[in-house]
């Protein structure tokens, strides 16, 4: 943010895992939030995800492009109202490619997928108390970097290792407007959100809770 006394630097948390604080300015966050509100509406809107184990995720989710369910992708909301999944907007694909370019810099330009390669968005809504356990994003058939954008309340984003869901890990604070990209050797790293900080989002955004949007290349 412009008014930050000590600007937060871009940081490579692990090889291929890069945090870019403040990547989206307030206007871009507002525009993305307005779009999320539209996507969240039925049919095929925000839903509670039930796990095969019988539990349910505390985040609520809506998908664009392809519908993610535990554990795979489908063209309709197979575990919800059955409607077709909403289209993946081209502008999100262009944002994703730009995000990877900005995170990786020119020296890794060859690892930036084409803007039309990105075809899936998972939009997660964290109400007060919602968390996400340590997991890998492993249902994609592509190894292209995952692009994560955060809006609203800040959170603890736990970025672990590729072998186990346990330590070593690094806790990163993700705030509204932050970008996090994980690809290359970190594409299959375990990660999760052990907590959010309710009430910490920018007042001018007008969002209660936290939204996270991951942009992915499905390879499906
Ligand atoms: O909310 C976040 O920052 C992470 C979301 C995530 O890991 C996922 O959607 O797979
Ligand atoms: Fe994930």
Automatic annotation (TrEMBL):
<feature type="domain" description="Fe2OG dioxygenase">
    <location>
        <begin position="117"/>
        <end position="219"/>
    </location>
</feature>
<feature type="binding site">
    <location>
        <position position="135"/>
    </location>
    <ligand>
        <name>Fe cation</name>
    </ligand>
</feature>
<keyword id="KW-0408">Iron</keyword>
<keyword id="KW-0560">Oxidoreductase</keyword>
<keyword id="KW-0479">Metal-binding</keyword>
<dbReference type="GO" id="GO:0035513">
    <property type="term" value="P:oxidative RNA demethylation"/>
</dbReference>
<feature type="binding site">
    <location>
        <position position="191"/>
    </location>
    <ligand>
        <name>Fe cation</name>
    </ligand>
</feature>
<dbReference type="GO" id="GO:0035516">
    <property type="term" value="F:broad specificity oxidative DNA demethylase activity"/>
</dbReference>
<dbReference type="Pfam" id="PF13532">
    <property type="entry name" value="2OG-FeII_Oxy_2"/>
</dbReference>
<dbReference type="InterPro" id="IPR004574">
    <property type="entry name" value="Alkb"/>
</dbReference>
<keyword id="KW-0223">Dioxygenase</keyword>
<dbReference type="GO" id="GO:0008198">
    <property type="term" value="F:ferrous iron binding"/>
</dbReference>
<dbReference type="InterPro" id="IPR027450">
    <property type="entry name" value="AlkB-like"/>
</dbReference>
<protein>
    <submittedName>
        <fullName>Alpha-ketoglutarate-dependent dioxygenase AlkB</fullName>
    </submittedName>
</protein>
<feature type="binding site">
    <location>
        <position position="137"/>
    </location>
    <ligand>
        <name>Fe cation</name>
    </ligand>
</feature>
<dbReference type="InterPro" id="IPR005123">
    <property type="entry name" value="Oxoglu/Fe-dep_dioxygenase_dom"/>
</dbReference>
<dbReference type="GO" id="GO:0035515">
    <property type="term" value="F:oxidative RNA demethylase activity"/>
</dbReference>
<dbReference type="InterPro" id="IPR037151">
    <property type="entry name" value="AlkB-like_sf"/>
</dbReference>
<dbReference type="GO" id="GO:0005737">
    <property type="term" value="C:cytoplasm"/>
</dbReference>
